[in-house]
Amino acid sequence: MEIDGPGSVPAISPVRTGGVSWVSMDERVDSREEIDSVRARIAGLPSPETTLLRVRLSGLMRPDDREALEEMERAAERFLWGEVDGSGLLPEPEDESWVDGLPDGLIRVVGERLRESVGAPETRARALMDLYSLLLEVGS
Question: How far from chain centre, in Å, is Cα 87?
């Protein structure tokens, strides 16, 4: 850090120390192509054995994007430390296949009630995404 004089704004310059790099990515993804683009950028990062990686995603997601998101998570596993945070992703509101793809029974009933509820759209979407994630966890 350098300060030219009293009242001056400090100039901060990165200085490489040790052998570990930190990469943080905040990405908005609203399509499969955008998810694939972020995954390709992750794959192109140098020195995964000495890189700490955090990827925070926001945007809209369709049910068939789940596989691409899992591929991105697998790509992040090759780093010294890697995290893909998809908590900012919401189901595509116009895509009814989220509920239509749920198995018959209680889970489908819950999904239909969530879709038809009158609460805040963001809350409904997040609850539906959580329900779908739980279903995937149980299935794997």
Answer: 6
What does the alpha-carbon distance between residue 8 and residue 77 come to, in Å, rounded to a whole number? 43
For residue 16, what are the CA distances in angstroms to 19, 44, 74? Answer: 8, 20, 28
Other C-beta atoms lying within 10 Å of the C-beta of residue 95: 16
Q: What is the average pLDDT across 95-100?
A: 70
pLDDT in tens, 101-140: 778 888 888 888 887 887 777 777 778 777 877 776 776 5
Task: For residues 13 and 1, give the distance between their C-alpha atoms in angstroms, rounded to a whole number.
Answer: 6
Question: Facing residues of 29 across strands?
Answer: 59
Q: Which contiguous run of DSSP H or E holds residue 88? A: strand 81-91
Domain region containing 100: 96-140
Tally of domains in the chain? 2
Q: Is residue 8 part of a domain?
A: no
CA 116 vs CA 16, 60, 103: distances in Å: 53, 19, 18
